[in-house]
Structures are given as structure tokens and as C-alpha cells.
Amino acid sequence: MSSKTKLFLNWAETYQAGPAKVGGKGWNLGRLVRYGFPVPAGGVISAEAYNLFMEENNLMSARRNLSDNITAANVGEKAAGQSLAGFRAGIISGTLPPGVEKEIASWLAGSGNPGRPLAVRSSASLEDSGVASFAGVHESFLNVTGLENITMAIKGCYASLWTPRAISYRRKFNILDEELLPAVVIMDMVMAEAAGIGFTCDPKTGRQDVLVINANYGLGESVVGGMVEPDEYHLCTDTLMPQLINKLIGKKEGKTVQKDGGGTVFLSKDTSENNKGGQVLSDEDIVKIALLIQRVFEALGGGEQHQDVEWVYNGRDFSLVQCRPVTSLPRYTYPELKGQPDYWSNANTKDALPMVLSTLTRKVVAGLIGGIVSAPFRAVGYPILPGLKYMRVYQGRVYMNMSLMQWEYFDAFGFTPAEINEIAGGHTPEIQIPPGKKDDKRAVRRRNWYKVKLMLAISKFQRKAKQEFAKTRKQAVKWFNCDLSSTSEGALLEELEKNNRLAVAYTNIPGMMNISSGFPLKMLTDTLEKSFPGKGSALANDILTGQGAITTAEHGYRLMELAETARKESAAREFFNSVNYEAFLWEEMLPDGSAFKQAFRAYLEEYGHRAVYEGDLANPRWRENPTYLLEIVRSTLNTADSAKIRAAQREKGQKAWREIRKGVSLFRRMLIRYWSGKAIRGMEMREEAKSGMVGMALPMRVIALDVGRRLTDRGVLKRKEDVFNCSFPDLAAILAGHWDGRGLAMLVKDRKVRNKNMASLIAPDVIADETPRHPNAAQVTPAKRGNSLSGIGIATGRVTGTARLISHPDEGSRLNPDEVLVAPSTDPGWTPLFIKAAALIMETGGSLSHGAIVAREFGIPAVINVPEVMKVIKDSQTVTVDGEEGKVYL
């Protein structure tokens, strides 16, 4: 070690050093300071000082001897205890390296109050990490004053690694002694009026929508050490601001306070002067500390890893003195699912949200998905377990809990796990239904009754849906034209809360519309299958082709018509064919009398709230940046032919009905027409509901951008768009006046790096509990017509063409007319590409995914759910897509 190596690191240096050198506790505190959290002044004695201490005091040999000879089996024996006690005594009697004492003395002197009380706490290299918490295993010393006492406390921290308790913990978790090097945190004591612990989850039940705070008067030792029954406050975190939902006022049998001369003392109620009863924190302060703890969850836990946070309150402000990951949490689910994995799948999310989601969007999406998924069950009165987690973020991407969905749809309506997987698509394993559950007569009657209630509820929601859709369109126009510059920050926070509540309330509509299309489509397919074995699905797809006013398909139809309009107009042709073409100049370059210009304005008025990957608030809406749409018009200027597509759709449907009329009785034809009508209406309303959902979320984007503008003006952020790399707790704390935003720019910078790193990772399709599962690539099967890949055919027809691999709609200019579009997934932003594609192949998707609905509507052959097809097929390779067989021939 260099003689110039610093051994006492300030918080900034602590962050840079990393957990291996400053331990988990120290590094987490350094991270908190970096991101602007209130942490007492202090720093860390690095783990290098411990090794130096061991060498200079000739303790290395004894340490190796203990490591070699003390095992999990003999650690409790008397001889082991004596050996450990002797080694601890050697540590206590040792001398710290001169450099350590000198650096601490310099730090103390620099504060102007070298005799102030300090906390000296162990911070071992794996402590407070995701591997192990070491909670209560190593020693901490509070109210330490003077250099001599600080020195003794540091050695006490070192010695605490060599207690039977600490050895047992390491042996239990297979942690080698040499892996655990102790650093030591030294920080100012806070004059504590109250203190406690906060959990971003409920550690008792495992619920992850509840934040729990324990609080007592005085120092936090009485809470951490379990010496009292503290107050316990529960807050709901589903909302943007935490909502206090329950208070359990503890007995608080005493409190821990600083003792004269150093250390602490526990004062019982009988001996404690001025001991207070009642509630430790006011309701306002409970929400304030809860919001601070939520910020820790987002900043240090990435919104994925729950946190255990120790806090102190001085009567005016809160300080954080420790945070660590929650490493163990009870599983909260239905009894029937216990003993089976939670299967998290991107089957339902890969269409709309395949990318690493922006930080700001995650909380909004979690609330919306939870509302959408649970809507059918709430509508019929099914007893949903409260607080279930339907969505999680894994490496930045969104996954759905398909185990929950498979069980609830079976238990409520009798749908099998296989049927749910078919609708959702993807490659999710099926849960096991407990024996006896399928045929239990009472359960069957209950499911049938729920089905009746569901059909009635669907009709009710369909009747009022059109009115709701109209409201969302008006709201989108209103918010695009909204000026928030004079709105107070408190009012902005209220608007965020209000619009989030409205969006969550609206989820009943898309939730019910989702199932309103799925059930009729299944009944239609089953009815056709009885008369046409093996062809039910293909015929269903054909008779649905071009039959509905599918809003996402209308995007494409209208773009084709726009291209046709532009083709007929000299001003538009001149604009699109110019060598100096710049899409963003369309308003300036096209004359006001241009028919194309007027038609395009009308298009943006109706669909301008949509976007490519519109589920992420960070992505600009088409009305803000229509470049993508104009590029589609430009690339189809000479080829767009909406009449040809409409004619092909009619022919496909008529051909299917001719076949049906020949082979089906009048009664069954009536049944087929009934279910096809229901399926068409269901799909129309499903896609319109999705459009409405995007419109309902629009205000949060508009408000966020205004907040970003304000923070940029203050120098808190570099760009207003950086606001999407902030969490809602970040913004709420600033808008509520709890935080000035100091450290936010650094947090945004680190989040961008983290998101970029996660975006480079290959996303698994399924996660079983915490184990990612990547699907095997589709197997090439020899066949008479050539080697083939198998998937799900969702739009019939057979097309041979050039495969064009498109990973993102922004690459759409590479797709030439009449080529085969090969994509990982598609959301409504991809629809304009469908008007150029001759056929579609997708890696994922189900019968009601966006790609399936639009391909079926346009009548282009489509095969979906072909695992890893983007790796199997090569760009420019000639392929044949057979939508009836569900095969791709190579």
C-alpha cells in the first residue's frame, strides 16, 4: 500500500471506492450523499486499514488459524469460544496504524468541534448487500467522543467480526472469512427526538404495495434492538404520493438516549423524564419520511430491490443513517400457488413495452397494468387477494405474473392455463391446478355464475365505453394545448395525482374490453372447429379480416389514403421528393391550401396522442414529432393502394363464408355470425380502449415535461427530457417542497448509464421466481416444401418474399413494399409498417396481441410466437409465410 493512500474517506471518496473497500453500509451511505439524501457528516475507514492493522499487530497467522479450524459444527464449543475471545482481546489491545488516527484527527479538527458525539459502525465488505444483510451481527458504538474513544470503537468493530455469532452467520451463508473485510463508518450523531426503521415492503406479510415504518422516541437502538413495542405506520404505495392507511400506536415501554460521558442508556417509562405517549410522528411527518424512503427504493434499489432504511428525526428534519436491501421476503400469493414458481412473462408486455422502461413511467405502468388485469375479477365480485403484484421490473423491463393470471382465470371462469397462454402468447409454463379443483361441483357452479356475471358486465361496459372514448380524445386535445407555466408546483403535484387516479379508474374499460374480445374469439374458433376440424382458427381469422373499425388499423388505412392524396397533389409531391427534404418542416413548406396538409392535420388531431412504443411516457407523441409518419407516407408515395387491400380483404372473407355455408347448418351459421359479430365488436373496442388509455396517460407526460423545464431553468437538470429519468417520488419531493433537487442530476446520469447497460442485456422471456429462462430458438424442421419453423398462424394466406428484420419502428425505412416484416413484437406504433409488408413473422404474441389483430384486419399472412426468430432468419433471406399452417418455410 502506498504511503499516500488515504484510509479515512469522505462520502464522495467512499462512493468512488466501492463496497469492496468501504463495505456495504459505507458505500450505500456514499450513494445516498451522492444523490442528495440527508446523511450526517462523516466518512469511512477503509478495509485496507484493517489489513494493515492485522499485519502491524502480527495477527494474520492467528486469523488464518481461526479460519482453518472453526467450523459451523464446532463454533459453539467452549474451546472455539476461548480461541475467539483471545483473538478479540488481541485486537482490542492492538494499535491502529498511525495514518488512521492522523486522518481522523484532521477530519475532527476541520469541523471546528472535535469533541462532538459520533456514531462508529461496522461496515464489512458484504454487509448490507444483496448477498447478506448481517443485520445485528457486527457491533456499532454510539455517542463516541474524543480520538481515544473513537480508536477503541474502531477496534471494537474489528473484534465484532470474531464473535461466535458472526462466525456462525458466515458459515451459514458459506462466506469465507477472507471475503469479509471490515471498513468502519464514522458519522455525526443526530440529536434524535425520534428514530426508527422503514421498509419499502411489508416484511411480515410479503406485500409489496405497503410501506411500513416503525418509530419510537429517542435513538433508534430501542427499535432496532427490539427493546420496545414501537409505533407502526402502514402506507399504500400504489399511489404517486404514499397514503397513510393504518397506524398501530405501540406501548413504547421506554427510549434510548445519549448518556453523559459517552454511550447510550435505555430509560424505561418509569424512569424516563418527559417520556411521551401517543403517536411518535405526526401524520404529515409520516408521509414525509415515507416519501424519502420511497426515493431510496428508487435510487438505490432501482425500483426493483426493496430497502430497509434507518432514519433519525431531530424535530425538524429527517436524516438517513443506514440503508440495505431486504434480502428475504415472505411470498404473498394464493394458497394454491404456494409450492409453485411465480412465472413472470413478457408475453403480454413485449408488444407494447419490450424496451428498458424509463424510470418515471414504471410506477404509472404498474398501476395501470394492475387495474387492467384485475378489472374482470372486480366486475364479477371475485375475491381477489388484496395487494397482489401483477407486474414487476426485471433488468429494466416489464414482466407480468402469469401464475396469478392463470390461477385467477381458472378459479373464476374455468379457463385452463393453456387457454390463457394461447391468448397471451409467449412461452410461459403452465401452473399445476391442485387435484380436485377442476371437477368440484360447487366450484363449477360458482365459475358458471361468474361467467354469467362477466357477460352482463361486459355488455354494461361496452354501452358506456364509447362515451369514455370520446372523453379521452377531448382530453388529449386539451392537454396538448395546455399552458402550465403559471401553475404552482403544489398544483402540479395535485394534477399529477388527480390524473394518475383518473387513469387508474379508466383501466376498468380496457380491462373489460380485453376479455370482451378474447371470449367471443374462442367461442367462434371452437364453433368452427366442430364443423371444420383443424381449420377452425384459420376460418375464424378469415371471416374477421377487414370487418371491424379497428382504431390501430385505421392508423394504417389513413396513412395509405394520405399517401394517395399526396401522390395526386403537386405541392405534396414536391415536398416529399425534394433533395433537401426535412420532415419537421412540413408545416412551413406545404401551402395552407394543400389538401394533404389539411388531411395530415386532421390525422394528428385524431391520432396525435399515439406514438412509437407509446407505453413509455418518455417517447414523443406523434403530434409532437410526426417525422415517423411522414417517412411512411414518403416511402409509400408511389405504392399505396387502399382499394387493393380492401378488395383482398373482402375476397378473403367471402371465400371463407362460401366454405362455411356449404358445410354448416343454418343454426350453426347463425351461431358463427353471432360470435363473429361479438369478436369484431370486442376487438374494435379493445383497440379503442388501448388508444384511450394512452390518452389518459398523456397529462402526466405534459406535466412531467413542464416540471423538467422548471428544473432545467434552475440548473437541477441539464435537459427537460431528463425528467423521465427521475422517479415519481423524486418529483413529488421537489414539488412538495421537501427537497431542492440537489444530487438529482447525478442520479439521472447514473440511471442513464444503468439503463444503457440493461438495454444491452438479452431479455429472458420468462423468469421463474428469480431465475431467468430464455426460450430455445425455434427448431428448423425438414418438410416437403423445405425446412420450416413453427408458430401460431393468426392471419391466413401464403406469401413468399424477402425477409426484412426490423428491431424497432425507427428502422422502418429499410422495409420495402411487399417484403416480409420480421419483428420481435409490435405495438400500435408499428401499424404504419403493416401497409408495406406482404406478411408478418413475430417472435412473440398471442391471438389478441396487437400484431395479430392488425395483421388479421389487413389480411396479410402472419405467423407469430416463433421463438428467437430474429436469430434464426437472416436479413434478405427468402421465406414463405403460411398463415393457415402456422409455419415459415426457409
What are the key terms here?
890 residues, alpha+beta, Dna Ligase, domain 1, D-amino Acid Aminotransferase, Chain A, domain 1, 8-stranded mixed beta sheet, 6-stranded antiparallel beta sheet, 29 helices, 26 strands, 15% strand, elongated, kinase, PEP-util_enz_mobile_dom, ATP_grasp_subdomain_1, Phosphoenolpyruvate synthase/pyruvate phosphate dikinase
Short synopsis of the structure:
The strands form five sheets. The chain has an eight-stranded mixed β-sheet. A six-stranded antiparallel β-sheet has the order 9-8-7-6-12-13. A five-stranded antiparallel β-sheet has the order 1-2-5-3-4. By secondary structure, the chain is of the alpha+beta class.
- Rg result: 32 Å
CATH architecture identity of the domain at 8-187: 2-Layer Sandwich
Low-confidence stretches: none
Question: Could you tell me the number of beta strands?
Answer: 26
Globally, the shape reads: elongated
**Main β-sheet, in a few words?**
8 strands, mixed
Termini distance?
62 Å
Q: Please identify the top-level CATH class of the domain at 8-187.
A: Alpha Beta
- CATH superfamily name of the domain at 8-187? ATP-grasp fold, A domain
SS element count, helices: 29
CATH topology of the domain at 8-187: Dna Ligase, domain 1
Mean pLDDT: 90
Structural class: alpha+beta
Percent range of helical residues = 40-55%
Strand content: 5-15%
Strand order of the largest sheet: 19-26-25-21-22-23-24-20
Overview of the structural elements:
The protein is an alpha+beta fold. The protein contains 29 helices and 26 strands. Among the domains are: about 180 residues, 2-Layer Sandwich (Dna Ligase, domain 1), CATH 3.30.1490; about 130 residues, D-amino Acid Aminotransferase, Chain A, domain 1 (2-Layer Sandwich); about 110 residues, no CATH class; about 100 residues, Phosphohistidine domain (Glucose Oxidase, domain 1, 3-Layer(bba) Sandwich), CATH 3.50.30. The protein has an eight-stranded mixed sheet with strand order 19-26-25-21-22-23-24-20. The protein has a six-stranded antiparallel sheet with strand order 9-8-7-6-12-13. Strand 22, helix 27 and strand 23 form a beta-alpha-beta unit. Helix 10 packs across helix 25. The longest helix is centred in the C-terminal third of the chain and has 49 residues.
